[in-house]
Amino acid sequence: MDIKAMADQFKNDKWEIKGKDLLVHDDCLGNGAFACVFRGTLKGKIPLFKVYASLQLVLEHTTGETSEVAVKKLPAHANHEGRVDFFHEMSFMKRLGYHPHVISMLGCVSNPIDPLIVVEYCKHGDLLRFLRKNKGSILKDETPKESKENDYPDYEVPMKIKDLVSIAWQVCDGLCYLSSHKFIHRDVAARNILLTKGMCAKISDFGLCRYADSSLYTAKGGRLPIKWMAPESLKFYEYTEKTEVWSYGIMLHEMFSLGEAPYPSVQPMEMIQYLEEGNRMRQPVKCPNEMYILMKGAWEFKGEDRPTFDELRAKISMLLNLGD
Ligand code: ADE
Fold first, then answer.
1. Residues 246-274: pLDDT tens digits?
2. pTM
3. What is the C-alpha to C-alpha distance for residues 56 and 208, in angstroms, rounded to an integer?
4. Mean pLDDT over residues 91-120, rounded?
5. Is the pLDDT at 39 greater than 90, yes or no?
6. Where is the Protein kinase domain (predicted)?
């Protein structure tokens, strides 16, 4: 389908934002190869969920006449494939529904030349950058100091290893929701988890997301996050809940190693053989034993031997209720 026809499909639905209601600022929140995210201001109140240490969710609304939002744009050099993917992402986000640990689309602009996806603003940015930036204070198990660079100022949320377990639970909860709706994200990684002002974790970036009405989705080629992929995705391009569980395990390793890149000494081309030989990443120094056991379970060679997200969530819930 051509871009104009895709855009026409979306026009005039309840998601369409009028240009006069949205102001896109110059500050770039993130720059990927396939989209740029800018800070924006949207007229009107938007729902806001806060999560507290006890994992209770509280619904609030932004105050005032306008809300801070994030605006995803196509880069100027985007090719036809990039544009089609962008419109796919838009339509996925409309179907997603609301879940506190999945980023919500607030609206969009489906102009074929300059389409925009407007989502909740997540003040602390992506989990990978957050971990790398706060590695020192997390290692000491102390409250992070105000950021010197001033890009994410004034957070006062203590980030300790136990808080990482809470974030792992929240992401798992979001993935339970996605898999129960047969959505396969295909790019579960710390770079795609966003943190709100209240430290609520949200799964984002649905550029690779697909709907699988059978439990298996097969896709060949395209841009691939090789080191996050399960053996059957690398070899046979298969995607299931169990391949998402593998990627979630890699994300857990990113978290508890405080932002280390996976398998730094292995070339992407060598990954299949490396995994087939039974090699897996070691336990990071600060990683609780119980979390490493979960990672290893997620990296069982055969998908059927890996746990489901429901099982993982139950185990992490138990961990969170243990101890202080
Ligand atoms: N970077 C990418 N998406 C973002 C968002 N929704 N909020 C803040 N920073 C982001």
1. 999 999 999 999 999 999 999 999 999 99
2. 0.86
3. 30
4. 89
5. yes
6. 23-320
Query: Pick the catalytic residue: 85, 126, 173, 187?
Result: 187
Higher pLDDT, 99 or 156: 99
| HEC profile of the chain | CCHHHHHHHHCCCCCECCHHHEEEEEEEEEECCCCEEEEEEEECCCEEEEECCCCCEEEEECCCCEEEEEEEECCCCCCHHHHHHHHHHHHHHHHHCCECCECCEEEEECCCCCCEEEEECCCCCEHHHHHHHCHHHHHCCCCCCCCCCCCCCCCCCCCCHHHHHHHHHHHHHHHHHHHHCCEECCCCCHHHEEECCCCCEEECCCCCCEECCCCCEECCCCCCCHHHCCHHHHHHCEECHHHHHHHHHHHHHHHHCCCCCCCCCCCHHHHHHHHHCCCCCCCCCCCCHHHHHHHHHHCCCCHHHCCCHHHHHHHHHHHHHCCC
Q: What is the pLDDT of residues 135-166, one digit of tens each?
A: 888 877 655 555 444 444 445 556 788 899 99
29 Cα–ligand 1 center, Å: 6
Ligand 1 nearest-atom number relative to CA 72: 3
Of all residues in the chain, the percent with pLDDT exceeding 90 is: 52
- Mutation choice for ligand 1 from 118, 204, 205, 206, CB with most ligand atoms inside 8 A: 204
ipTM for the complex shown: 0.95
187 is catalytic: yes
